[in-house]
Structure formats: structure tokens, C-alpha cells
């Protein structure tokens, strides 16, 4: 049996165990109810990524922020109103890229015209993340479909459910462990930082205020640190200033992220610390020399993330608009 077929079989078995039989997910969920689902998604995603190459990183980040808070249910897509402060307006989510929300809106609009009330916003976000990873050069993995959109979105639920860039490696390991992910899975998933960017405020301490003895983190490549200091000189005035997570191949999904960590070119403190911590270093070193191992582990971990605490049946809905409940 081929590895991809075995992976799908194992994923399907997992779904069968945790989801009631009447609401099982499948890769062919929209085959009859919305036959052009994949075609429409491909067209929308390709057009958006071509026009705005940072879309892949934007969608991947929103996907993670959505799934890690109460499960993959599209709750991060919901906008606040006079009666509710939604997840999107939690402090850590205020910098979520607009390209991700724009893509979901475009896709939902097109799908509602084709097959009204059928495709969930959560499935749109999940399939978009997978397709964009592949478009950026990363691995393909199976995405089971049929999720429902969640019925709750509260900014107050976000704190404690997302990892922060200044956490210790131990804190990040425990954070992922509570959600059912091991150290190897964690290191693979953090490899998503191979694309995208971070605002200067997220790593300013490493380049300006590290300690009384040194303004810069000694684990950071000194030439790299100077470049970041120049880039972020006015970040307190302009908080939108940002740097690519992967300084070498910022738009390509590859294993360069791990090679960068070995060279002191990690942007975020927690990421760089993984290259030294004995619990995470073996996986950093493995992925740095073996991109296939990284892609395989990342694909398996993403399949697992994509079904984390999903809503099905009467526990959710198919929103008519992704930014508001029905």
C-alpha cells in the first residue's frame, strides 16, 4: 500500500472513531452537493495568490489561529458586533493578515452562487491552507470535508490557546501537548514559519533590549541582527513594519527555515531556542538535512490539526456569510 493511501486510511479511521456515523467527513463530501467545489476553490486561490503572493502565509496563520482556539470551526472569521467581541479582535489576532479574510470571502461568494448553503467557511479555510501550501512548494496532504461552522466566537477564549513568540521551549511543548501534539509534531508544525513575516514588536527584545550586557541576543547572527535593527528602527512609530520569518527563501515552502536556525538566522526567540534545546534540536537537525522528512511529518501533523475539535451535525451550521452567524 502506498504511503499516501495508508495515511488517508489512518486519517479516515481516526475520523470514524471521534465523529458520529451520521456526520462523517470524507474527501468526496461535496461531490454531489457541490460538484464544482474544487474547481472553484482552485480558481479563486490561484487568482488571489498570483495577485498577492503573501496570501499563502496569511491563510496558514489564520488557519492555525482558528483551529487552536476551540477547534477548526471558522470562529476566527467572525467579525465583532455591538453585542459580541469576536476572536478576530483579541489582541494577538489584531495583526492577522487581511488577505486571508479576503480570500475566504471571495471563495464563499463564488460558492454561494454555485451551491447556496452547502459549503462551510471552515472547509473553505482548511482547503485553502492545504492548496496554498502546495502552491508555495510544500507537501500535498488529504483534507477530509464536511465540517460545520462554529456557533461561538469570543475574544476572551483566545488567551492561553495560542503560543506566543517569547515563550520558552518548555512552555511551547506543554502548549502543544495539551492539544494532543508531541514534540516532533510541534517542531514540524512550527516549520510553517518558512513562509510569512512577523512584526518587529514580536522580536524587538532580541535586537534592541536583550540584556544589560548586550542589546542583541547572542544566539542571533550579528550581521542579521544589525540588518533587523536597521529595518525595525522606527517600529514603535510604525507598528506595521515587519520582517520575513525566512530571510533566505521567504516565499517558498521548504526546509530552509531549519537551516536558518542552525546558522543563528531564526527571527523569533522560541524558534531559535528550538535549535539548542535537546528535546527539539534532533528534529531541527533532521529537517535541515532532509526536506522529505519535514514534508512527511508536516503533512501528517496538518491532517491532525485539520480535524482538531471540529464541529459536525447539529453542533454547527453552514454560514451564509463567513463573518457572521446565521
From TrEMBL:
One of its GO terms (biological process) is response to oxidative stress. The keyword Secreted applies. Binds 1 heme b (iron(II)-protoporphyrin IX) group per subunit. Binds 2 calcium ions per subunit. PROSITE patterns: PEROXIDASE_1 (PS00435), PEROXIDASE_2 (PS00436), PEROXIDASE_4 (PS50873). Its cofactor is heme b; Ca(2+). The record marks 61 as: Transition state stabilizer. It comes from the Eukaryota. InterPro entries: Haem_peroxidase (IPR002016), Haem_peroxidase_sf (IPR010255), Peroxidase_pln (IPR000823), Peroxidases_AS (IPR019794), Peroxidases_heam-ligand_BS (IPR019793), Secretory_peroxidase (IPR033905). GO terms for cellular component: extracellular region. It holds the Pfam family peroxidase. Removal of H(2)O(2), oxidation of toxic reductants, biosynthesis and degradation of lignin, suberization, auxin catabolism, response to environmental stresses such as wounding, pathogen attack and oxidative stress. These functions might be dependent on each isozyme/isoform in each plant tissue. This is Peroxidase. It comes from Nepenthes gracilis (Slender pitcher plant).
